[in-house]
Every structure is written in C-alpha cells, then in structure tokens.
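Morning run. Coffee first, then this:
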Amino acid sequence: MKFEVSRFLSIPTLAAVGLFSIVSEVRAEPPAWSGNPDATFVIKTLPGMMRYDTTELFAAPGDRIKLSLENDDDLQHNLVVLKTDPNDKDGQKFAQAVFTSLGDKAIAMGWVPRDDPRIIVATQLLDPHASEAIYFEAPEEPGDYPFVCTVPGHSLLMRGTIRVQKAIEVLTDLTYSIYEGKWDKLPDFSTLKPTKTGDLPSGKLDIGVAKDLKGGFGIVFEGKLHLTDEEDYRFFLASDDGSRLIIDGEGIIDRDGVHPMGSPKEEMLRLQEGVHSLRVVYFEKSGQRGLSLAMRSKSLGWQDLSVQTTNKKAQKAPPKPILLTPKNGEAITFRAFLPGVNPRSIAVGYPGGVNLAWDADVLNLSRVWRGGFLNVASNWDGRGSGSQISGYDQAEASHGFPFQQLESLDEPWMTVSKASIKYERDVADPQKEISFYVKNPDYQFEGYRLEPGNRFPTFRYRYHDVEIEDTFAPSEIDGREALVRTVTLRGKVPEKTYFRLADSGNLERNDSGWYAIEPAVWLKLDSGGEPVLRNVEGGKDLVLPIEPDTEKTELKMTYWWQTKIGGRVKPD
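And here it is:
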C-alpha cells in the first residue's frame, strides 16, 4: 500500500508545536501530484458537538487524495485513517487502545502512535480553529477504511468511513449532441438541429466534447442507466451554466439559468431494478463552464457519472444546535431517542457537567458522559428522529439487565428478552421465523420520581419480589468529574443472583480498587461486597454476588473520569 504524506498546518497550530516542528513542517514537500489530486475532501469539526461534519467519503482504488481537516471546535482534535480490520470495523477499538499503548507519551505524540502498521495517514493534533491538509494515495484494495479522532473518548462520535470501490459500468450507450446558440435558459433542443453528434464509450458525461467552442453552445447527453436493485437513489447535479437531469422522461433536478457552478443540487428517487433512460441537457452562455453528475445508493455506493467530479460528501452538516443545559442546581430529565440506546431511554443532565442515559427497556444504566448534555435540534428541525449527545468522553456501562440468576459463572448474561414466531403463510410446516423483543417476566418498571429541590430522578423497578431504586449524584475526585450511583434493594433476592457492574474495557483492578471500563472512565465499587471478574462470551465482565437472605441491600459505586476533558486542560 503506497501513500505519500505532506502536511500544511495553519498558523495557530504552528505556534503551538514549537520552533523545531515549524521548521520541519514548512520544509515538507508536497507530492508532485498535489496540484492535481484525483479527489479533494474537506472535513470540518462541528463546534460543541464532538462530531465531524462528514462521515462518509468515496474514492477509487489508487486515487490521489488531498484531505483537509478544519477544526472549528474549541477543543483539540485529530483525524487518523486506518486499514481495515474485521474485528474493528469503525476504528473505535484502535482509538481506545491508544491511551494504553502510548502511556505518558500520548499527549506529546498527539494521541497518534505513528509507527502503528494499521495507520494509513494521520493529521497532527489540531488546536482549536486550526487546519491541516494531508496527501495520500487510496489503497488499491476496495473496502471500507475507517477514520477516527483518537483523543480519548472522541471516537464514540467522531468517526467515519472512506469507501474505496471500483468504478461500475452504470451508464452505457451514452451519446452527445452539440447545439450552437446563446441562451439565458435551457432551450427546447428538440426544435434545434445539432452541429455535431457522437458517442461517449467511457460512460461519463463530458463537456470536453465542445472544447473547441468558445461559448454559446448546448449539449444533450442520452444514455441507459443500469440498476441492480430496487432502492432509493440520490442524484447530485451541478453546472455552469444551466442543466437539467431527466430520468425515464421525468425531470428530476433542474439547475436552469445563468449561474456559477456552486454546490450540487440533490434529489432522491426510488427506482426499480432494470434499465432506465437518462437524459441531461446543458447550456453554456459564456465564461466559466462545468457539469458534474453523480449518483449514490446503498448497493452501488457513490458513482460519478461525469468526467468532472463533484464534492463527495455523503452527509450535510446538522442544523444549528439547540442545547439543553442544567440550571439553578437542578437536573434535567428528558425522554429521548439517543443513537445507540434503546428507544425507551431517559437522559439526565446533572449540575457539574455529568450526564447519563438510563434504559427503561432493560432497567439499567446505559451510558455516562461529561460536558454538554443534549442537542435537541432534531426535535425542532425535521422529524425529530433523535436527540444528540453534546458532551464528551462517553462510556458505556454494563449491557442488558442489571440482575440475573447464574447457575454457574460460565453462564452468559441476558442482554434482552426475545421471542420468535413462524411467519410463513399457507405452509404446513413453516420454517422461517422472526425474532422480536418481549417484556422480561422477572422485571417490572415502576417509573421514576424527582427529588424536591434538585429534581434528581430516582428510577424504580421490581426484580421478582424485590423493590429496587437506582439513584445518581454528581461528584468530583481530585478535580475531575465523577458520578456516584446507589442501587438499593428492599426484599430478599433469589438464590444465586448477581449484579453486573461492567462488561467492557480493561477490567483488571488496580491497587486502589478501580476498574477501567473506558480509557477515560474508571469504576469502583464502594459498598456491597466483593465483585467477581469472569471470562465469558469471548470477553470479560464484572459481576457481584448478592446475599439472598438480606432484607435490604445497598450497592454503591463511582464512575470517575481520568483524563483532561476533551483532550485539554479544564479551565479554572
């Protein structure tokens, strides 16, 4: 796999890295092809949201790529492009291991282990409002290559994919007809006589066929669009001057009039499998000229249908954030649809900048994070498909239900309750079946109450005949955020009942009794007994046996953030 790298840092970053780094970076020579890359990408960080504005890029094998990272956020970020790994498809495991592998050198190395063979290319650690351009060649092997921010905790949200794919012959029997004339809008070409016609065996629109004309011309392209699946197809059209895309005789995108190239206009169309007619009409009045057409679908990925390519961003920037923030020492409790959490999640933002999501489907803590609480812009802009976590340094707690009876320590933990049903009709002995979630008979959710004054919620549920309350309170240890959790059981639990504390991270206990569930977040059991670390389901989890003959049991634990928030020193 070949790649060349040349970096160009903006002034704020140069000032931060010191004189020696300034000299070495300025002297770095760009590759010979830097002025004419095959693909140019710009990725920006979204202020206050811990996200890249682009999460999907497309390239062909061997493409010479210029990729710029513009850090518009107030925190430090980087971007690392990785080779594929079937055991770490999105790069999160790599990012999480950086903290452990680099140790005390992590900050000085910008959270990037430069000699790691999995890294294709990486930016420096960029200060707020700095930028960097890097050059490299896309791998020759088609596949999905992840990119992540390796600052601790950032990869949970800051990640994306470069999809390297071979060109597919989507457009065939492509012809062109050139017409001469000056127009301010697209004419009716059917009433005009072409001055030149021909074929385009490359299967791509090319206004270069009229390169001998100085201005005042139009082109009609016609061809056959071959689709292998019935699905939604997105088309992207940009032009200087006017253009129109027509599929199966129906106008899909209209960019008529005299105007500069601008950003591509996008429209989605559901098309059936098979062959469809494609027609693009275009005119150039004078001055600059350009025409680009691209298509994207789940099965075909990104396909450039023109010689001139367009910006290959797959996701537009989210709307302006609308942030929920705790005030006056009170918590905010918000029923939210959060990415990666079951639909019945309850988000809580506490004073002091610690937050959690509690899952009412499995009656358990789902995740914790610090910093900002929630961005609820999607509830006002669009259909409200999901609020977004606006803070940093997330950590997942244990997955699935909190309590379970284990006949042996080798028994797997139950994460959800499922049932199945045979769904084939008119078949005497149906074999096909579907699975669906069902209520666990051992549990009953009884809602939550808000404490007077601070409005901290207490989550209430039953496990068999035991009444359980789950409460949380913000705290601080050595100047860093912490969250204290208390689980109170009233009633005798069944024999061989265990409580699951954690099932991810490095769960080896240190000398002070802490377990790392994420590089940036540690867990400690403060009361309730002695936990058991076991190997199960190909990994580790930490479970706590519960005394069966006790009328009241209190389990107290602390989640504590270890690193400086968001990769920088917290302000005093």
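The chain has three domains: 8-164, 171-304, 323-567. Good start to the day.
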